[in-house]
Structure formats: C-alpha cells, structure tokens
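Predict the 3D structure for this chain.
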Amino acid sequence: MGRWFGGLTLFVAASVLAATRVSAQTYSAVPASTNAAGWMTQPISMVDALNLTLKQNSALVKARADLESSRGLVIETRAVALPNLTANSRVVDTDPNAIQQFPFSGSGTNSGPKFVVPHYSWNANIQVVQNIYTGGRLMSALRAAKLQKEQSMFQYQSAVADALLATRVAYYDVLVAEQQITVNEASVALLTEELQDQQRRYEAGTVPRFNVLQAEVALANARPPLINARNQYRVAKNNLCNLLGINLPKSVWEDIPLKLSDKLDSNPFEVQLPMAIAQALERRTELQALERTAGLQRENVINQRAGYKPTVQAFAGYTWQSSQFTTDLAREFDGWEIGGQLSWNIFDGLATYGRVVQAKAQLQHAQADVEDRSRQIELEVRTDYSSLLGAKETLESQQKVQEEAEEALRLARARAEAGTGTRLDVLNAETQLTQARTTQVQALHDYDVARARFERAIGQDMQPAPEK
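Done. Predicted structure below.
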C-alpha cells in the first residue's frame, strides 16, 4: 500500500472534491475505443486502475446519470418558491344560432333595428403569480432542495467508494492468481526434476520402480492446481477489465494481455477500534445520505400539514381582447390587472389528515433506517477489523515458514543421498514447500483485501489528503 496509497488518496480526494463543485455532466465517460491501446502496451498500476474506474466504470456512469437526475429534482423542488409566468390566448368562432341577440331601438320599442353580436372573438393575457403564503411550503421547499442536493452527492460518493473497493479487490485477485501460477509452476518443475532423477536412478538400477511411480503420481497431482491457477488468472483479468470499463477487442480470446505493475505488499496498518468506529459513523456517506432522507421526510410532514392552512397569492398581468360589440377584429381593448387571491380548503374529506399520517409514518421509518444503518456500520467495522487482525496474524505466522520449508527440503535430499532418508521424505518436503509458498501468497492477498475493506468500512478512502 505504501507505494501507491498516497497517490490514491490524492486522486480520490481530488475526484470527490471536484464532484461537489460541478454538476454531474462534467463526468462524461471515456469512449471504450480510446482506452484499449494503453492497457495492452504497458503495465497498469493500482492508481491507473482506479483512474480508469472513475472514468469508465459502468456503475459510476449510471451513478453520474442519477446525480444529474437529482439535480433536476432539486430545481423542481425549488420551483414552488419562485413566481410563475403564464401566457394564454384564445380565438373563438361560435354558431350564430347559439348567440342570444337583443333588440336595440333609439325610441325604446322592439320594432327598431337590432344590434348584432359578433360570433367570433379573441383574447390574450400574460400573468405573473407569486405564492405569498402556502402554510409553510415555501421555506420547506428551500430546505428540501438543499437536503436533496446533499443526499444525491453522498449517494454518488458511496457509489465511488464501492467501485474503487471492487477495483482494488479485483486488482489483488489478479496479483494473487499470477503468484499462484508461479508457485505451482515451480512445484511442477521441482517434481519434474525429481521424476527425471528417479528415472535415471531406476535405469541405473539403484532404486526400485516404486520410487519412479511415487514421483509420477506426485507430478500428476501437482498439475491440476497449476491448471486451476491459470484459469483463475484468466477469470480475474476478465473481472478487472469489466470493472475498468474496458471493451475487449474481438481479437482477444481467452488470454487477455493485461499486465499489472504493482505487487502484493504487507505494509502495516495500525488503527484503534474505538477510533475506527467513531470515524466510520462520522465519515460514511451512506449514513449521511440516510440522515438527509430523514430530513426530507421531516419536510414532507410540514408540506402535508400545509393542507390544513390557506394559500395566499399575488398576481399581476396584462390583457388584450377583441370588442364584443363589433365585427371588426382589429378593434381591441387592453389593460393591466393586479390583485391577490386567497384559497382555503376547509374540508377535503380527511385527505390531508391521511397524507399527514402517511408522512409521519415515513419519517419514523427513515429515522429507524438511520439507527439501523449506524449499527450495521459499527458491525461492519468490527467484522472487517477482526478480519484484518486475522489476516495480519496469518501473514506474520508465514514469514519464516517458506525459509524453513526450503531448508527442510534441502535436508531431506541430503538424507536421501546419504542413504539415511527415503524418497518419500523428499516428496513430502517438496509438497510442504509448495503449500508454504501457496499459503504465504494467499496470506498476502487476504491481508491486502482485508485492509482495503477496512479502509472502506471506516470511510478513509473518501477523505481528502492533508495539506502539506
């Protein structure tokens, strides 16, 4: 971790801080056709892998789309506090038989000429309406918009942390699979050499056929682990490429030409459990997102209670309309209007009461989610801490095992050459050496994975690097 963790922290911190300053549309995914050359021509470091993950990982591409969608929701939520500007126009042509005519006479009798009401008319208006009082909805909408913005950002940061953790684990999986191939190849080479030696001795008549059979069986038993290690290596590389958002060329078949530059390491990672739990409860973005959800439900209660209260609006506008007493459409009347209006739904059949009951229940559910998530985070930290301790102890127990196994093999061979030992002792020593190498490589992998999961559990991977 020591070689790349500093760069990783700086990179992730810069990415997350940038995400809080710009909209989600800034993060456009790099087309897959542009990223093939790099990973095929040179080894990829851990920081390079995390960089590609942030740019191209499909989960993060969808998370950025969700972040942009939530930005639109924030704008929509704020709209209740802003004025509405509307424009309307209407043109009507009415059947003359449906228009009531009235007599018109200068002498006051019905025998005089009649005034013809036009059967076509038009009108238009433009109006601005501003909510003055809505029972608390205005301020609640502004608070809810802020909560929604923070919630969406925390959710995006959680998606980033999960994607980076998945990439780190997949990177370690490729490394351990590659090391397991080396270990098993060394075992096969060692047993092949032993078989050749026994065959020569058998042909010389110094050992029985049994020794050759033992060596052949031991070699045959060593080949399946090598085959499995190569298969795991292929699978691990496919999984890592998928997380990196790489579209493999059609010419690539079962063996992906992916090389990694970093190695498994055992750099120490010291932390106190109580401090780790406190840090996790403070930094975990999932918990902060749920707290914003509870805040939104609290605002929803206020919003639903506003249904009990009146609504006051102010309006101003301008109106144009055709004359109602002439057939000349060019003759119009226009003027401004300004005023206010109050509406109050006195009784709505208990619909508002029902919505308030629902909102309160949803608030209780959200608060319970926050408490439950807090306990889950503490459990996750404790579990990952225990896994880290176990991996560390296993790794420490294996530090000298390989040296001891190599020395045991040397002594077994010496004893066999001197006639005081058997070839079975040599085969057992070779098997133990292979097991020691395999366990050590796996212990390194388990330690690195446990460390990565623990860092994710305490929220360390989402914190900016300290200024120098």
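The first helix runs from residue 5 to 19.
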